[in-house]
Write a structure and sequence with these properties.
400 residues, alpha+beta, six-stranded antiparallel sheet, 16 strands, 30% strand, disordered N terminus
């Protein structure tokens, strides 16, 4: 009897152990399947994210090109034409213009950090100023950082360009960040928008998709082929042509803007590239006319990039009167599109800074024009360049 009871207990224990093992195996299998599903979902999400970051006009396989302008991955925005570039790079004058205002109107001297930033050195040179571009191209303003100034900016760009700002709300406009929040500091804001929309003199043809370099397929092109009306080529000027891999052309627009293409540019920054292009154009003695047998194609472009210049933020520098200044935020955005009809560019720049100088508005004092010391006197006929009498008085007793 004891042996039978012991055998039954052993069999029962073995059965329970088998059930536990089966249950554990089922749990492990479920966990593996669940993890595989998670990995699949994660990979699909990453794939979708990677595809959405491909710039418009550069398609992978037979994918349909995106129509929305997205932020371009790997596009470096530089603040001046003197900054070194590599790969995809872009420059627009807006940041230089707000820097000029900050430097000349408030700081009153070169802006010097410790250690000094190379970009700051280039910006201090002011190689682009507002007199180098027509007033109709840009809107800029600076002043004490107040909600009134923000309202002025928003109304100003709406009235001038019918545009809204893409970066103004990236600045802190809370009560603590405005001028007057602290009695020992003064907050300034510098802002600029450049906006331009242009049309080609004649619409170019949409061309077949093709390769760009050796890496990219199905790129969208516009231009001129053997089926294009000959008048379309009249808007193109040849700057120079050494070979199909070494040339520059300029396309005229209805608004007077020029669109210049320079293939395989030479130079380490935009300034060198532009100067080299002009040098080759000056030396060119070939045909500067785009002829009926010539062909042209260019890729459609969509650029949308924003850069925050963290290199300048939270670093102190001195104003001319030795007050300590600091940049809280410096931002620039560039949007640019180009197709067979023409193009559009919108760029903004904004600098939020403070200084410990306190503005005190003194009451206006009368100017004193007292002729009570040595003086000179002239009598001149109106409209003439030379006076007919001159005198110098030092000892008034000899006169009175």
């Amino acid at each position: 009897m004891e042996e039978k009871k012991s055998t039954k207990i052993s069999l029962g224990m073995a059965f329970i152990i088998i059930l536990v093992i089966v249950f554990l195996v089922i749990l492990i299998i479920c966990a593996i399947v669940l993890n595989l599903e998670k990995d699949k979902i994660r990979n699909e999400s990453l794939t979708a994210s990677d595809e959405s970051s491909v710039p418009a006009g550069i398609n992978q396989g037979d994918e349909k090109p995106t129509t929305d302008i997205k932020h371009n991955e790997g596009l470096n925005v530089v603040p001046t034409m003197q900054d070194k570039i590599s790969g995809n790079s872009a420059w627009c004058a807006t940041f230089q213009l707000v820097w000029n205002d900050m430097k000349n109107e408030v700081v009153k001297k070169d802006i010097v950090f410790t250690p000094q930033e190379e970009m700051a050195k280039n910006l201090n040179k002011e190689e682009f100023t507002s007199d180098m571009i027509s007033n109709e191209y840009y809107y800029k303003v600076y002043g004490l950082k107040t909600l009134e100034l923000k309202d002025k900016i928003e109304k100003g760009i709406l009235e001038k360009f019918n545009q809204k700002s893409d970066i103004i709300d990236d600045i802190d406009w809370s009560d603590d960040a405005l001028n007057g929040a602290r009695p020992d500091t003064v907050r300034y804001l510098f802002y600029c928008m450049l906006y331009r929309k242009f049309e080609f003199m004649q619409k170019f043809d949409k061309l077949d998709k093709g390769k760009f370099g050796t890496k990219y397929n199905d790129v969208e092109y516009f231009g001129i082929d053997d089926k294009t009306d000959s008048e379309v080529g009249n808007q193109i000027d040849v700057l120079f042509y050494n070979s199909e891999d070494d040339f520059a052309i300029s396309i005229n627009t209805k608004s007077g803007d020029e669109v210049i293409f320079y293939k395989n540019p030479k130079g380490s920054n935009f300034k060198e590239i532009y100067e080299n292009m002009n040098k080759y154009a000056d030396k060119f003695e070939g045909d500067e006319v785009f002829n009926n047998i010539d062909v042209f194609k260019a890729p459609k472009l969509e650029v949308n990039q924003k850069r925050e210049y963290t290199e300048f933020q939270d670093k102190e520098f001195l104003t001319l009167d030795h007050n300590v200044a600091e940049i809280y935020k410096a931002i620039q955005s560039i949007k640019f599109s180009l197709d067979e009809n023409g193009g559009e560019i919108k760029s903004e720049a904004i600098i939020d800074m403070k200084t410990n100088a306190i503005i005190s508005e003194e009451p206006e004092q009368p100017r004193k024009f007292y002729i009570d010391d040595t003086f000179a006197i002239f009598l001149k006929e109106q409209g003439k360049d030379v006076p007919y009498f001159a005198g110098r008085i030092e000892d008034i007793s000899k006169i009175q």
